[in-house]
Every structure is written in structure tokens, then in C-alpha cells.
């Protein structure tokens, strides 16, 4: 006896013959709001993780922001000590795709840096979708910290 119960949990994407086009069924797909299960589809951007490491000379931040242009990413200093990294990807209303897998969205992370951070010397670089922010350290009370 054959079973078709698996079809209730999958949609066939663009091509019925392509086994890799099967995706989990989302009962909220197409509604004006998104379900919590829709997160993984846009996770690579909206839920982007930021790594922070500290060396004796600098603080280094790295964020995977694949698919974004450098001009879509902003790095700012707020209140003298807070590093703010933000980005936004929006879809144009006149785009008419057959299938949309990449969603628009916003990304925002803030980091409070210690007093020895030289916020006026922040450097940024973006290569292959990876943003690197470098914040040099200064001398604090007569010592390098």
C-alpha cells in the first residue's frame, strides 16, 4: 500500500522531477505575516551572526552578510562607545520573479565597547560578503590594555 502522507509536509518547488526542490510545507506561506518556521529561509541575512574577538591591539568584528552590497551596510558609533552595525535589503515592487527564496529584511547589532576602544579610528572592509570591522585600542591610564 502506498502512502501520500509525505506530500502534506512538502511542496515541490519549481520542478517535480528535481528532488532538491522539495521544501518543508509552510501553512502560512503567502499570508501577509510570516510564521516562526519561516526563519531559516531568511536566516542567512536577518539572523546573521557577528563574531567579536579581542587582541592586545584591536577589537575585531566579523559578520556574514552575503548578498549585500557595501552601500547597503552601515557601521556607526553611537553615544561614543557603542558600535552599531546595520543593513537592510528590500525588494523592489516591480520585480516579478517566478519564485522568491531570498527575503528582504533588516539586520541590526550593537556592541558596547570598553573605554580603551579608539572609536574615532574604526576601520571597515567588506570582501565576499563578509564585513570586518576593526577598532584599535588605546592607552588607558598609562598602560596598553
From TrEMBL:
PROSITE patterns hit by this protein: SHSP
Q: Which InterPro entries match?
A: A-crystallin/Hsp20_dom, HSP20-like_chaperone, Small_HSP
Domain SHSP intervals:
41-145
Q: Which UniProt keywords apply?
A: Stress response
State if ATP-binding is listed as a keyword.
no
User: Organism's domain of life?
Assistant: Eukaryota
Database matches in PANTHER family: HEAT-SHOCK PROTEIN 20 FAMILY MEMBER (PTHR11527)
Q: Which family does it belong to?
A: Belongs to the small heat shock protein (HSP20) family.
Name-wise, this protein is: SHSP domain-containing protein
Q: Which organism is it from?
A: Musa balbisiana
